[in-house]
């Protein structure tokens, strides 16, 4: 059988070749898509941790980290990027850390600190709902500054990273 002057076998062979290419590229595509969704919270949490740690290095242990800042923006973006109105990032802690967004973003952020006489700690969290289903992705990084030691940060922990 011929279609447009070409044998049907030729069309089947081309179709099969295209499917093979698609199936060989698809895993890498989805892996990169997954990774791209994790870039924002990981980069932003590292930024917060670096700034908080740098601030702590020049302070006494009992006042090492800035005060806590609530989840900002207060409502986690659901399935779309959020553009923040003016003043969203005006909390004193966000200003001290130099943390804000000028572009749309997919996560809300919080900073919790506990300064004490023997040890101070912080926890920075990013929460997102990338697919808009109400289940949140959570990323978190912590830091500690013990008396007689240096401020350090831990690794970023993830829960439902692409939810």
Task: Tell me what you see in this structure.
- The chain is built from two helices and eight strands.
- Strands 3, 4, 5, 6, 7 and 8 form a six-stranded antiparallel β-sheet that branches.
- By secondary structure, it is an alpha+beta fold.
- Helices cover 34% and strands 25% of the residues.
- It is elongated and about 85 Å long.
- Strand 1 and strand 2 form a beta hairpin.
- The protein has one domain (39-159).
- It has helices at 8-57, 92-97, and strands spanning 2-3, 6-7, 69-72, 107-114, 119-128, 137-146, 152-153, 157-159.
Give me the oligomer status: single chain
Shape descriptor: elongated
Helix/sheet category:
alpha+beta
SSE ordering: EEHEHEEEEE
pLDDT < 50 stretches: 29-35
Number of structural domains: 1
Task: Please give the number of β-strands.
Answer: 8
Helix content: 25-40%
* End-to-end distance: 49 Å
- Mean of pLDDT: 86
User: What Rg is obtained from the alpha carbons, in whole angstroms?
Assistant: 23 Å
Question: What about the largest sheet?
Answer: 6 strands, antiparallel
> What is the overall number of helices?
2
* Percentage of β-strand residues: 25-35%
């Amino acid at each position: 059988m011929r279609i447009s002057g070409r044998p049907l076998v030729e069309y089947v062979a081309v179709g099969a070749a295209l499917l093979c290419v698609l199936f060989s590229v698809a895993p890498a595509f989805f892996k990169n898509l997954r990774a791209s969704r994790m870039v924002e919270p990981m980069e932003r949490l590292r930024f917060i941790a670096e700034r908080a740690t740098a601030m702590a290095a020049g302070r006494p242990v009992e006042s090492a980290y800035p005060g806590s800042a609530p989840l900002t923006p207060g409502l986690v973006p659901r399935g779309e990027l959020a553009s923040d109105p003016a003043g969203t990032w005006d909390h004193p802690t966000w200003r001290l850390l130099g943390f804000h967004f000028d572009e749309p973003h997919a996560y809300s952020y919080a900073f919790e600190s506990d300064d004490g006489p023997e040890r101070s700690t912080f926890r920075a969290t990013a929460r997102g709902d990338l697919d808009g289903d109400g289940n949140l992705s959570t990323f978190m990084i912590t830091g500690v500054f013990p008396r007689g030691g240096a401020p350090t940060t831990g690794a970023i922990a993830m829960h439902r990273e692409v939810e």
